Amino acid sequence: MDRRADVLVVGAGGSGAVLAARLSEDPGREVLVAEAGPAPRVPAEFPADLLDARFVPGARLGGAAVRAVPVLLAPGTPYTAPRGRFLGGSTTVNGGYFVRARREDFDRWAAAAGDDRWSYERVLPLLRALETDLDFGDAPEHGDRGPVPVGRADPSGHPAAAAFEAAARELGRPGEPDKNAQGAPGFGPVPSNVRDGRRANTAIAYLLAAAHRPNLTVLGGCAVRSLIIDRGRAAGAVAELDGRPVTLEADEIVLCAGALASPHLLHLSGVGPAADLERGGIRVVHDLPSVGVALSDHPQVIVEWTPRRPMPAPASSWLGGALHLPSTGGHEAGDLEILQSLVPLALLPAPGLTGGTVTAPGAPLPFLVSAQAPRRTGGLRTVSADPGVPPRVEYGYLETEDDRRRMREAVRAAAAVASTAAFAEVSRGLTGPDARTLGDDRALDAWVRARLGTCQHTCGTVPMGSAVDAGGRVLGLEGLRVADTSILPVAPLRGPAATAVLIGEVVARAMREERG
Ligand SMILES: Cc1cc2nc3c(=O)[nH]c(=O)nc-3n(C[C@H](O)[C@H](O)[C@H](O)COP(=O)(O)OP(=O)(O)OC[C@H]3O[C@@H](n4cnc5c(N)ncnc54)[C@H](O)[C@@H]3O)c2cc1C
């Protein structure tokens, strides 16, 4: 045995960094964190590339902070999904959009878990506690002293964002000045975990602020390969630390490796659907059929428009406004999203790649258009006992006519924005789809399929209710939890980053309460 602790947290991402920081508030609890990626000890050690909120570092496959996972979005549509592999996990490389799940999401999760700890009323105190809302901090549903700064850029500060706002008004869409207030969906600025142009990832917001605690140890470059499970109890993990094998032991292990890596680790440790594991040559330790049996994410396509005149660089974030609206017969809280980028697509990945440039005269600007209806599709199957062999991940997008219809409606809604008089002030029009394609369902389906992407919002691979309980405890085993977006039975109607932080808070609260 190389290290021992009371709790071993595997992965310091959106949820793990939060959980480890909260658990180590109790000086009597020894917390050990194993993070596969590099682990700076102070914020100043973070490369500036990873903090500049005008970029999305995860858009750069092959970057040092990104792990690339081969997946299939739909039959015949291979894709490489990026995941953060750095302290802070995907919150270190993501878009910085920090929007709460909707009340109906929480109700859906509470029902699936059979536990009202996930109801909106029960999580609201934690949603308040995790943030310092820079705009609405004194409102009853908000907090003004939590670790994550949350701000919104005024759309009037950029001509493209102002035109989007005016276009939404022209279309009769409601204004939604605070997308974290559970109001009617409409146009509004995007709440983001950004202050002074810097993205506050969970490492900076939570973990490094706790790094001085003697009961908290963070091992960077430490990739867990499998868990040691003995007679129904998780006792430790086999890991590689800077290329050397190590054994980590703990009374309790919490997997926070993300919705693709956590189910893979469970499978490699013999926990999952027995028949599948046996087929992969893995010895079954605990038959848990729902681990990896499906996943939940949001399909996305990019719709671009050509500016009439050169657009200024955004002041602090790539994000313009966002419009949420319900699909036909869909969710009242809005299951379609049109998210505006103020930076051309080719310049989004990272300043290192673009010389720090965020404008390119004449380059089209993107809308990220997605259907965010709660759906469970696809799945993650582990095909080999070798941790180096990636699992087979299928997203199962566009399977049903309803899936395709929602994407058509989302693209048509973006085209409607672009065709308003207000938006024509700044735009020469879309680069595609053309009017004929927009008017023809089959042609539009083909257009979407040819450009199919994903929001990178994966959830649901170790779902509450059938694989874990509301506090993340793996059903049927002792000493093992999962606390990351894997446990959400279905993805929220919005991006999951704010909910990943909440998961860290909810599971920390559960562990505190159980300890008494
Ligand atoms: C490019 C990109 C952009 C995104 N943009 C947004 C956005 O703007 N808004 C939004 O709401 N959501 C966004 N998301 C999604 C959001 O960031 C994630 O849902 C959230 O970070 C998930 O948190 P997590 O804790 O589940 O996993 P992660 O944050 O991915 O953390 C997992 C951590 O575990 C570590 N790990 C993995 N395997 C091991 C192992 N074997 N041993 C040890 N450590 C391991 C990883 O290195 C990582 O640090 C984006 C995601 C990506 C990839």
TrEMBL record:
Residues 84-107, 258-272 form the Glucose-methanol-choline oxidoreductase N-terminal domain. NCBIfam families: Rv0697. Residues 137-158, 172-195 are annotated as: Disordered. One of its GO terms (molecular function) is flavin adenine dinucleotide binding. Belongs to the GMC oxidoreductase family. It comes from the Bacteria. This is Putative dehydrogenase (TIGR03970 family). The keyword Flavoprotein applies. InterPro entries: FAD/NAD-bd_sf, GMC_oxidoreductase_bact, GMC_OxRdtase, GMC_OxRdtase_N, GMC_OxRtase_C.
